[in-house]
Write a structure and sequence with these properties.
Rna Polymerase Beta Subunit, Chain: C,domain 2, about 30% helix, globular, Rna Polymerase Beta Subunit, Chain: C, domain 4, Dna-directed Rna Polymerase Ii 140kd Polypeptide, Chain: B, domain 3, six-stranded mixed beta barrel, alpha+beta
């Protein structure tokens, strides 16, 4: 049987391995939680799309007369399949509809009836089963964002004079930021939105702590003393904690109204912090105050000096003054009245509409400050503000810790679902605004929800998110690993995140909380290093957006190996002692070491097993998928491991793949979770196989047969030569044969860098580490000709060329093979529509699609029209607008497609009408047949049982309670899709069968509805194309790329190089038995780079090849040198691969032994064919008239400032003059030079370069009069 896969020999020391989670969970689960389509509407959680609708509805008009309420939402099936969307350049989307209820609360409008309607809100891009979105024909990925979690953060900074400044910043989910900070004078200020600052005590007064006494009482700083001569004498020498104010009332007459108004006046008798003496007591007694506040004499008084300092700086004395002061600071204007002034602070921090900490923010705030405020209270409270200030004072007095902003408990992940939620929020709030406006306008007339809603509002926001947002990216589809890594990527950039320029070293650095959550290895080289990272293999994102990693619980030195591991977030992991996964345990889980090395926060204590709290679940827990695929990673330097994991994503899928002999055991999981391959859905037998499809007959249980509408045979179409985003090829081949028995989950095909269900990015190559005539100097690679001849590194790349036919002012463009002024030879491969035939070989300059466009001439007279019609003289009025092959294109046409819009005339419309009627008739029959099957199956299940009362979704009883089920009863039910899933019978087992049957019926009916809609659309509209385009022609050209000198290759350990020479097989160094090696690498590339993993791999690979085995050597838990030696001895090859080689040219033995073995090499996407370029005659820049640069523009090589210096140094003046004039921007000179070359005359003198004229014009632009003197 073809599909048998020998198990890899695993070197892991861990017995109880933990299952990996689904690698695409972060995308797929997040999207499902957002849409909640699987959940019944009444059970939908308060998250995702449902939550966004609930936040924006109900909507009322300005007079609260009309209310538009949201009831539910649902989606229809997509109009096109994913493949069709990719072919036609469309978006894979679903129509979103909402059920809305409009009613009137005003008794005067009794004629207004309550209306419930399903309203179309636009099409929404829908996630494909592989976690991508297809937008305008291209697959895109929405990358998760790692951003600062909402909550409160305490930090410190240093003033220029060395003073420590402390701050507390409250970051909300939505709303204004508020920051509390100290200055060099030990005064505490509140900053609102990072702009305006005000003393904290002013804010206290504004939120209800009006008097100094109230503020001091918060911190228990003052005691109140009644004023009497004898009473105060006891307190002589104590300091006043608050001002002593003399207050009185004055009456004055308002000149405008004549009213008598009483106003309060204040006069400061004694200021704060004055020491009581006898004179002061007299003044206090005269001021007729009832009580005074004195400082408490406690040890903690000194801690709170900052509050007294702040009170000194506070310009306000009452709540009214405070709110007015805040208003003036924020608005730079006087408040119109006290009410408005008071409203501003409420709106900023205490209003649900404007401010929200979110669930995460409230949770973090409670956790940090030790509060117990309900999770539904998502605005700031007075308690929050007071506790923050108290914590900040503790911080100033070194009694508390500052926060580590890079700790993963302070950073959270915004997954796809959350990003979409916030976009829907923006779209719906815009829609709500237009709905309100329309409600206000339509006062007396009767209107419906549909009249209020503009569907474009929402879809324009969503489409712009998918099209232009920094986190919606064109998917890297070079190979399955690149796809899966892109979907698991986390970026700190993007809206609301960091920018490359502002991100410092700390944000980019590896933090101890990354352990098991973010990969410390895989991150790009260059400006994004550390800002873009990858999720570790076991990591999950919890409901709050924090990353969790699994551990096994340890109790009294015994590891819990029976139960599933527990997932901990970075915060829950604090102060826990955790051991590595490789600790030795017996079969009961007891740790057999006396001491173990543990990990606690950033430290590594050596402790006794009894002290442990947890152990890791696997040694590769810390790394991402890419890094976990590098065997012997433990022997590689981290920088090279980073390059290795990044380069594996650039490996192009080869024509003939080969799974690695030395793997890590993760290859199978990556291939299956990438959703590229087809897996058997259950146990069954293969009925039929060819290159395009596989048919399997599945075994069914009796219950499955009762509730299923599908036949037990399923046909799988194999993807053949599909172009990926990067131009590589997906081409699947079956690996089962007719009659094979298959089991659930078994892989049925291979291809696209997979072999027998395992990831296979490259090939196993016989390698020698030795210099070879200097050709492998500096990382260059010497390759045997056998590799090219046997297509070992050959890959197929597909280019798509498309041409649009538009309808222009001068008439329609046309696809044709009758092109003016083109030889018959050039059009011999074109069909009547001007499209090149499939199978034609293409070389540069060939016509791929022939098109003619009307020329802008005067309208022909009727006579001319007649003559042209008779003699077919079309050349006069059309020009050639064909698509020609680009300069480096060599390949074969493998497919062509033509899409065209339906042309509408009277006859066509009548024809369409008839076709649609016939179509509807055919589908009615299908619906009836489906219902008949349902009733037959349903009756078989409920026959002889009594109905329990079945209702439809309008609440009407459809099947009455107490009656026995009959066929007549079941046939009488109109619409099974809208029944409420209640209890059909008293038997739970029967009820479950019925529920499953009706669920499957709904799916089947939905599919039929979708198919009917699609076919109707095709008849009436034709192919859906963007506006203004009548036809779209596409040609696919496959290029077979063999390995060439200049191609980039790499191993898995960051050992990259360029092919420098392809040597005849007989000239390659050979082993004693005469076997020539395939590839020669430079041994000097190993020691300085410290990636010794490649040597381990080479030796083990050779043993595997000899013994016919494949190995799994998981990272940090792989094969030891002794185990490798055992295998090399068994295989009969020298230890460490040290072998004498013989020179292919002379047959003589080389002086020293070299390391020989089998290494896994990849061919990377940087191929010389895409980079090689030379310019002869090409385009020039419009203004400077210099040749353009770059391959895409068919440009030249820039001769820059330094190159000019080089020629100057050699005194090559004539060459230099030629380069700077006729070869560049001397327009007249270059024409004359060309003429001279053609005629064989001597070179003319160069003229004026165009850039000189540009300079002249710029000087004239500065109003300088420049003239050229002859």
């Amino acid at each position: 049987m073809l599909s048998t896969q020998a198990e890899r020999l695993n070197f892991s020391s861990i017995v109880n391995r933990t299952e990996y989670p689904d690698f695409l969970d972060i995308q797929i689960k997040s999207f499902q939680d957002f849409f909640q389509l699987e959940t019944k509407s009444e059970e939908r959680g308060d998250e995702g799309l449902y939550n966004t609708f609930m936040e924006n509805f109900p909507i009322t008009d300005s007079r609260n007369q009309f209310v538009l309420e949201f009831l539910d939402y649902f989606v229809d099936p997509p109009r096109y399949a994913i493949e069709e969307c990719i072919e036609r350049g469309l978006t894979y989307s679903v129509p979103l509809k909402a059920r809305l209820k409009l009613y009137c609360t005003d008794p005067e409008h009794e004629d207004f009836e309550t209306i419930v309607q399903d309203v179309y809100l636009g099409t929404i891009p829908y996630m494909t089963p592989s976690g991508t979105f297809c937008i305008n024909g291209a697959e895109r990925v929405v990358v998760s964002q790692l951003h600062r979690s909402p909550g409160v953060f305490f930090g410190q900074s240093f003033h220029a004079n060395g003073t420590k400044l402390y701050s507390a910043r409250v970051i909300p989910f939505k709303g204004s930021w508020i920051e509390f900070a100290t200055d060099i004078n030990q005064v505490m200020y509140a900053y609102i939105d990072r702009k305006k600052k005000l003393p904290v005590t002013t804010l206290f007064r504004a939120i209800g702590f009006e008097r100094d006494k109230d503020i001091l009482e918060i911190f228990d700083l003052a005691e109140e003393v009644k004023v009497s001569k004898t009473g105060l004498k006891k307190y002589l020498g104590r300091k006043l904690a608050a001002r002593v104010l003399n207050t009185w009332h004055e009456d004055f007459v308002d000149e405008d109204t004549g009213e008598v108004v009483s106003i309060e006046r204040n006069e400061i008798v004694l200021d704060r912090d004055i020491v009581l003496d006898k004179e002061n007591i007299e003044e206090i007694l005269e001021a007729e105050v009832k009580t005074v506040l004195l400082h408490k004499e406690t040890s903690e008084q000194g801690d709170y000096a900052i509050i007294h300092n702040t009170l000194q700086k506070d310009p306000t004395n009452s709540e009214k003054e405070a709110v007015e002061h805040i208003y003036r600071q924020l608005r730079n204007a006087e408040p119109p009245d006290e009410e408005t002034a008071r409203g501003i602070i409420d709106k900023l921090f205490f209003s649900d509409q404007r401010y929200s900490l979110g669930e995460v923010g409230r949770y973090r705030m409670n956790k940090k400050l030790g509060l117990d405020i309900g999770m539904d209270k998502q605005v700031l409270t007075k308690e929050d503000i007071i506790t923050i200030i108290k914590y900040l004072i503790e911080l100033i007095n070194s009694k508390a810790e500052i926060d580590d902003i890079d700790h993963l408990s302070n950073r959270r992940v915004r997954t796809v679902g959350e990003q979409l939620s916030s976009q829907f929020g923006v779209g719906l709030s815009r829609m709500a605004r237009t709905i309100r406006e329309r409600m206000n306008v339509r006062d007396n007339e009767v209107f419906t929800p549909i009249d209020l809603i503009n569907a474009k509002t929402l879809s324009s926001v969503i489409n712009s998110f998918f099209g232009t947002n920094q986190l919606s990216q064109f998917m890297d589809q070079t190979n399955p690993l690149a796809e899966i890594t892109h979907k698991r990527r986390l970026s700190a950039l993007g809206p609301g995140g960091l920018s490359r320029e502002r991100a410092g070293f700390e944000v980019r650095d590896v933090h101890y909380t990354h352990y098991g959550r973010l990969c410390p290895i895989e991150t790009p080289e260059g400006p994004n290093i550390g800002l873009i990272s990858s999720l570790s293999v076991f990591a999950k994102v919890n409901s709050m957006g924090f990353i969790e990693t699994p551990y096994r619980k340890v109790t009294d030195g015994v590891v819990d190996i029976k139960n599933a591991p527990v997932y901990l977030s970075a915060e829950e992991e604090e102060d826990k002692l955790i051991a590595q996964a490789t600790v030795k345990v017996d079969h009961d889980g007891k740790i057999s070491h006396d001491k173990v090395i543990a990990r606690m926060e950033g430290d590594f204590p050596v402790i006794e097993p009894e002290e442990l709290h947890y152990t890791d679940v696997a040694p590769n827990q810390i790394s991402s998928i890419s890094a976990s695929l590098i065997p012997f990673l433990e022997h590689d330097d981290a920088n090279r491991a980073l390059m290795g994991s990044n380069m594996m994503r650039q490996a192009v899928p080869l024509l003939r793949v080969d799974a690695p002999i030395v793997g890590t055991g993760l290859e199978r999981q990556v291939a299956s979770d990438s959703r590229v391959l087809i897996n058997a859905e259950g146990n069954g037998v293969v009925l039929y196989v060819d290159a395009n499809e596989i048919k399997i007959q599945y075994e069914r249980t009796e219950d499955e047969a009762k509730v299923s509408f599908d036949s037990d045979t399923k046909t799988y179409k194999l993807v053949k030569f599909r172009k990926t985003n990067q131009g590589t090829t997906i081409n699947l081949k079956p690996i089962v044969v007719k009659g094979d028995k298959v089991t659930k989950g078994q892989v049925l095909c291979e291809g696209y860098a997979t072999q027998k269900g395992e990831l296979a990015l490259g090939r196993n190559m016989k390698v020698a580490f030795m210099p070879w005539k200097g050709y492998n100097f500096e990382d260059a690679i010497v390759i045997s000709e056998k590799v090219v001849r046997e297509d070992i590194f050959t890959s197929i790349h597909i280019d798509e060329y498309s041409l649009e036919v538009r309808d222009t002012k001068l008439g329609n463009e046309e696809l044709t093979n009758d092109i003016p002024n083109v030889s018959e030879e050039a059009t011999k491969d074109l069909d009547e529509y001007g499209m090149i035939r499939v199978g034609a070989e293409v070389k540069p300059g060939d016509i791929l699609i022939g098109k003619i466009t009307p020329k802008g001439e005067s309208d022909p007279t009727p006579e001319e029209k007649l003559l042209r019609a008779i003699f077919g003289d079309k050349a006069g009025d059309v020009k050639d607008a064909s698509l020609k092959a680009s300069p480096s294109l060599h390949g074969v046409v493998i497919e062509k497609k033509l899409f065209s819009k339906a042309v509408k005339d009277k006859r066509k419309r009548a024809q369409d009408k008839d076709d649609i009627l016939q179509l509807e008739g055919r589908y009615d029959a299908k619906f009836d047949e489906l219902k008949a099957v349902l009733i037959e199956k349903l009756f078989a299940i409920v026959n002889g049982k009594t109905a329990q009362g079945i209702f439809n979704d309008l609440g009407e009883e459809v099947l009455p309670k107490g009656k026995k089920f009959t066929l007549k009863m079941l046939n009488a039910v109109d619409d099974y899709a809208h029944l409420v899933s209640g209890k059909w019978t008293t038997d739970d087992y029967t009820n479950k069968l019925v529920a499953d049957l009706i669920h499957n019926y709904k799916i089947k009916e939905n599919d039929l509805q979708g198919a009917l809609r699609r076919e109707k659309f095709t008849i009436s509209v034709g192919d859906e194309l963007p506006s203004g385009i009548i036809k779209l022609a596409k040609v696919y050209i496959a290029k077979k790329r063999k390995l060439k000198v200049g191609d980039k290759m790499a191993g898995r350990h960051g050992n990259k190089g360029i092919v420098a020479r392809i040597v005849r097989q007989e000239d390659m160094p050979f082993l004693e038995d005469g076997t020539p090696v395939d590839i020669v690498l430079n041994p000097l590339g190993v020691p300085s780079r410290m990636n010794i993993g490649q040597i381990y791999e080479t030796v083990l690979g050779w043993a595997g090849q000899k013994l016919g085995q494949t190995y799994a050597t998981p990272i940090f838990d792989g094969a030891e040198i002794d185990q490798i030696n055992e295998l090399t001895d068994k295989a009969g090859i020298p230890r460490y691969g040290h072998t004498y080689l013989y020179d292919g040219g002379t047959g003589q033995r080389f002086d020293q032994p070299a390391t020989v073995g089998v290494i896994y090499m990849l061919k990377l996407g940087h191929m010389v064919d895409d980079k090689m370029h030379a310019r002869s005659i090409g385009p020039y820049s419009l203004i400077t008239q210099q040749p353009l640069g770059g391959k895409a523009q068919f440009g030249g090589q820039r001769f820059g400032e330094m190159e000019v210096w080089a020629l100057e140094a050699y005194g090559a003046s004539s060459t230099l003059r030629e380069i700077l004039t006729v070869k560049s921007d001397d327009v007249i000179g270059r024409a004359k030079t060309y003429e001279a070359i053609v005629k064989g005359e001597p070179m003319p003198d160069p003229g004026l370069p165009e850039s000189f004229n540009v300079l002249m014009h710029e000087l004239k632009g500065l109003a300088l009069d420049i003239r050229l003197e002859e």
